[in-house]
Design brief:
- The protein is α/β, with parallel strands linked by helices.
- The chain has one domain: TIM Barrel (Alpha-Beta Barrel), CATH 3.20.20.30.
- Helix content is 42%, strand content 18%.
- The strands form 3 sheets. An 8-stranded parallel beta barrel has the order 1-4-5-6-9-10-11-15, surrounded by 8 helices. A two-stranded antiparallel sheet has the order 2-3. A two-stranded antiparallel sheet has the order 7-8.
- Strand 9, helix 6 and strand 10 form a beta-alpha-beta unit.
- Helix 3 packs across helix 5 and helix 5 packs parallel to helix 6.
Length: 372
């Protein structure tokens, strides 16, 4: 099991749907979160992408210099950058970070935001463009000189002069719940990502993508994006979940869901279906809570409970075939410590021997941060 954390480059806070208890998106705070994740033994961090976030590549490059072993899952955006430019960025980052790059392929799901960036392709056309983009990107990083004429992307005599450290290239992570997205993932991705849906739905996705990959003559790994609300007791955890959305009212939910309704992302539609815009009955599967998705786009579910219960739920996903767990919690600095203290000892983690995880579990490192 490999566990990654999250850099809240759009801002952070103790509550959702309000500025109360908020933390502005400042580099000094991002550095705190990254260095905590680095020292605690997290495999890496996901840096989000979009107009509401700081640029992920510039932020990752800065944070790589502030950390020692942490990997950075950074987005490439087909349609917003060319595959040759993206290949040069990836190879440069991989070299200057000594092989710590992971690549997150993001096709986009908000037509309004995409139009603002000058991209006017339909949902399926974006995945056509992504397929062509990744065909070129992978061949360049494998050392080929590429001439390719596609419907959306064409290059002639493209070549990458400075290779990446990782061979044949940094691992490609890819999330997409639509048929078009899964087809492209099966053809190119190393790790297929899903948001935190109930285990039955996740199992169906894994089986579907595995079969598509087999048809391409490939094998792949799987990952999941989840929030975590873990406390020493079940009661405390559920109280923390309710506190997180205590300032979320009906109007705030309605405004957020109106924005999400315009998305053509199948994954976002599946997230909305889990809660249907209501604050009632948010536990959609044992310990899986959909409250975050009321006002937050993207990953909208959290595992809630005491350490033993949350660990059991994570192992259920692991038994389905999930290896990469990309976790987060509000606020991200304190919750990075809390998850490491309470959950890591119960998980079958793949962490380097240089991690100080044992010190944290022993309450010897920043004990006051854990107990806020």
């Amino acid at each position: 099991m490999k566990v990654l954390w999250f850099i809240p480059s759009h801002g952070d806070g103790r509550y959702l749907g309000t500025a109360k208890g908020g933390r502005s998106p400042e580099y000094s705070y991002f550095k705190q979160v990254a260095q905590a994740a680095d020292r605690l033994g997290y495999e890496g961090v996901l840096i989000p992408t979009g107009k509401s976030c700081e640029d992920p590549w510039l932020l990752a490059a800065a944070l790589a210099a502030e950390t020692k072993r942490l990997r950075f899952l950074v987005a490439v955006r087909p349609g917003l950058m060319t595959p040759t430019l993206a290949a040069r960025m990836a190879s440069t980052f991989d070299r200057i970070s000594d092989g710590r790059l992971l690549v997150n392929v993001v096709a986009g799901g908000d037509p309004v935001e995409l139009a603002g960036d000058g991209l006017f392709l339909s949902h399926d056309e974006r995945y056509e463009a992504t397929d062509e983009f990744l065909t070129i990107w992978r061949r360049l990083l494998e050392g080929e000189e590429v001439t390719f004429a596609g419907k959306h992307v064409s290059v002639k005599g493209a070549k990458l002069l400075f290779p990446a450290v990782q061979k044949p290239y940094p691992r490609l992570f890819f999330g997409g719940s639509s048929d078009a997205g899964q087809q492209v993932a099966a053809r190119h991705a190393d790790v297929y990502l899903t948001w935190g849906e109930p285990p039955r739905q996740v199992k169906e996705k894994i089986e579907r993508v595995k079969e598509l990959a087999r048809q391409e003559g490939r094998e792949m790994e799987f990952g999941i994006r989840l929030h975590i609300i873990v406390r020493e007791t079940e009661k405390e955890a559920w109280k923390a979940a309710e506190r997180l959305i205590q300032h979320v009212d009906g109007r705030t939910i309605e405004e957020a869901q109106r924005v999400f309704a315009r998305y053509d992302s199948v994954g976002q539609q599946r997230m909305r279906e889990l809660h249907r815009g209501r604050k009632e009955s948010l536990e959609i599967s044992p310990n899986l809570w959909a409250g975050i998705g009321l006002v937050r786009g993207g990953a909208g579910t959290a595992l809630v409970g005491d350490p033993e219960t949350v660990a059991e739920r994570l192992h259920e996903y692991e038994q389905l075939g999930i290896r990469y767990f990309i976790l987060s919690g509000y606020p991200h600095l304190e919750e990075a410590y809390r998850v490491a203290e309470l959950l890591f000892p119960l998980l079958s983690l793949d962490v380097p021997s240089s991690s100080i995880r044992g010190e944290v579990v022993g309450h010897e490192f920043f004990p006051n941060v854990i107990k806020v």
